[in-house]
């Protein structure tokens, strides 16, 4: 695949640069307005998009690994034997022999296996994916920009039918496809494993991280490159590839169109400076001026001073953080005290407002009393008028009764003495006149008494009302004066509080500025002290690291000794399991109708791998066994149950889906082996056979055999 990394960086940079540019936005809007709905994209994309960083990293390191192998570094192994001579003396004999299993060569062996597993994991997922693409994009635009007419026409056709290269041994690796380059590095890694040196040390224990930085690893350029690849593989956490499968039915998305618009705009720019040398010259001069200004800005010594100051500040930051934290805490405490004072003043104000509210309530109470007095006066007036009416009615009845008695008396006089009628009439008239005069006098007296009582009541009420109004007015004035005094006192207190707060803030600010000045003066001294402390701590850490390394080396040696004790058992189990797996493969090839399955069995023998689960005094171990070499995958310290390793066992498989798997066990129950078989069938869809190995004596071992890539 073509490397578009720099193109994409330029593309993103152009997008960011032109985002707010008037010309860009103007042309883009014109291109959008010119859309007649005839833009199209047809085709399909089936492609393996590979992150070439890891491919290049292994490609560049392979020659150095091959050179390191060719150096054939070895060491002399010396064995001292004491031989007993009959009744004479002891004789010390020295035997010397050469060996290749030095630490650095085992680093190479482990690295090759590490890189091969890394590549195989990705290769197995990509090998069966087709790489077949065909795309056709068309777009036409006719624009009028002010007095300028522009025609754009895009007809882009891309066709790719990848086929695997027959010869991977080429000088120009850029001529190979990305996937062929992966095949090439797999081939190179396997060739490294097939060298005499790697075969010689294949059974030696592989190296566990972290690497011990020997002089050879640090100084030899070939081994230095190998260590760099080791570090790269450990830190590479990305998937490393993407499998793309897309089909296009003619419709272009807005994102597709905007990408083509950007290409059209850049095409317009290129054609403009091609046909206008003066424009190109002016833009070039402006470009050089901006570059000169940018360089001048970057070279300013102030930036260097800022970097130095930043470094010095960072060096002493940890020492000063507690001191600054204490100062901040003290300032916060002072601010809290000021807030408390403000809250106390607020409480005083709330108390005064409560008093004002009480006075307002009292005023409302007086208003209600005045209203009640008015109601009482109206009631008394009603009662007086009612009493007057009752008295008037009684007098009228008294008069009526007297009139009735008089009529009866007249009737009797008329009957008894008609002669006295005239006299009696005269007397009667006089009496009637007198009675009428008396009645009128009494009515007048009652009216006068009623008027006097009414006037007295009204006078008393008005006097009381005037007195109450005067008292109320006086109280209101007193309340208003109290409120004014309270407000004045509050304003004075608030002003005093604000002034004090401002003074304290100013004092605190001056103290902070002084402390910062003192801090800057002491920076250099403290930085030097810090550097001295850092150096001392670094020495202590180096000593501690050396001690830890020695302990780990001792532990590794103990594990290697422990592994060697199990080596014979592993080899016996591996031999029996390989036979069982070969039988399953032969059955599989025969069922597929292969006539040359014997050749396939021979090639499959080299690919047999076994994952062994076995107990040790430290716990259950999970070990990979292949081509006569073993690698400890994991130690479950202090664990005696076999089932803890089942998940890691199944996850260690790679590229074996659909292939036969043979499981043997000895010295343990069949339950764990059957559970592993069930997990493999479930996740990898493999045919699995479980068999007990009765030929070996073991405290407990389970072997899972399969053919890897």
UniProtKB/TrEMBL annotation:
It comes from the Bacteria. Keywords: Coiled coil. Residues 279-376, 436-566 form a coiled coil. This is Chromosome segregation protein SMC.
